[in-house]
C-alpha cells in the first residue's frame, strides 16, 4: 500500500494493515484507547506552560472517542508495570515516538517493541513524529504507521484527523527531514508500577 495523506495535512499514513482507521469504527462504547507518548520538551512555545506537548493529540482524539488515556513513558523508566496495566485494559494502543534513526529514536523503537509484545492481539498504531523512510519503517513491521514532521500542535491535530477520518486521500511520500530535533527532558519522574 503506498503512503497516503489528506490533501492539506502534514500527517501521512504509511500503511494500515489492520484496517484500523478510522479508529472510532473499531471502538465500542467504553473501549479504552491508550496514548503512550515520550516525555519531551514542547517544540511549540505557545503551549510551553502545558505539562505535556502531546496533550493536543489526546484532546483531539477525545473529541471523537471520550475514553482516551494518555500515559507518558520516559527514558529512565521505560515501560513500567503501570504501562503494562493500562495496555492490558486498552482496546487500542497508540505509541508515539519522536525519533526513528537517532539514538533516542532507536530507544523509543525498543520501547514500542515492548509495548507491541504486551499488546498481544490488541491493535497498535505507531505514530512517528519525525522523518521516516518507508524502507526503514517496514523493517520494524508495525501494522499501522502514521508519520508527521514533528510534534507541534498542528502536526498532532493532523494526526488525530487522519486517525478518525475516512480515507479521502491522495498518494504521498514521507516528509523530508525536519530541521528542529526534539530534546527530551533530562529529569524524569517514574510512575509507580501499579495502578
Structure description:
- The structure is a single chain.
- This protein has 195 residues and is an alpha/beta fold.
- It has a single domain, classed as Rossmann fold, CATH 3.40.50.1700.
- 27% of the residues lie in helices and 19% in strands.
- The protein has five helices and eight strands.
- It has helices spanning 55-62, 81-89, 103-119, 134-140, 153-164, and strands at residues 4-5, 12-16, 33-38, 68-73, 92-97, 124-129, 144-148, 170-171.
- Helix 1 links the parallel strand 3 and strand 4.
Taken in chain order, the helices and strands follow as: EEEHEHEHEHEHE
Query: Helix fraction?
Result: 25-40%
Strand order of the largest sheet: 4-3-5-6-7-2-1-8
Estimate what percentage of residues fall within beta strands: 15-25%
Protein name: CHAT domain-containing protein
What is shown here, in short?
This protein has 195 residues and is α/β, with parallel strands linked by helices.
Amino acid at each position: 500500500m503506498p503512503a497516503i495523506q489528506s490533501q492539506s495535512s502534514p500527517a501521512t499514513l504509511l500503511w494500515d494493515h489492520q484496517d484500523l482507521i478510522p479508529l472510532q469504527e473499531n471502538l465500542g462504547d467504553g473501549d479504552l484507547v491508550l496514548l503512550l507518548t515520550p516525555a519531551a520538551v514542547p517544540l511549540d512555545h505557545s503551549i510551553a506552560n502545558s505539562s505535556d506537548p502531546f496533550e493536543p493529540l489526546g484532546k483531539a482524539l477525545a473529541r471523537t472517542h471520550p475514553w482516551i488515556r494518555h500515559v507518558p513513558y520516559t527514558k529512565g523508566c521505560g515501560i513500567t508495570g503501570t504501562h503494562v496495566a493500562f495496555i492490558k485494559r486498552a482496546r487500542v494502543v497508540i505509541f508515539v515516538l519522536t525519533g526513528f534513526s537517532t539514538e533516542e529514536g532507536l530507544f523509543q523503537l525498543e520501547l514500542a517493541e515492548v509495548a507491541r509484545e504486551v499488546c498481544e492481539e490488541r491493535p497498535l498504531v505507531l505514530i512517528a513524529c519525525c522523518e521516516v523512510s518507508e524502507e526503514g519503517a517496514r523493517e520494524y513491521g508495525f501494522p499501522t504507521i502514521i508519520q508527521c514532521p514533528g510534534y507541534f500542535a498542528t502536526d498532532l491535530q493532523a494526526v488525530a484527523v487522519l486517525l478518525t477520518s475516512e480515507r479521502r486521500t491522495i498518494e504521498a511520500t514521507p516528509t523530508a527531514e525536519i530541521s528542529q530535533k526534539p530534546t527530551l527532558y533530562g529529569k524524569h519522574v517514574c510512575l509507580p508500577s501499579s495502578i
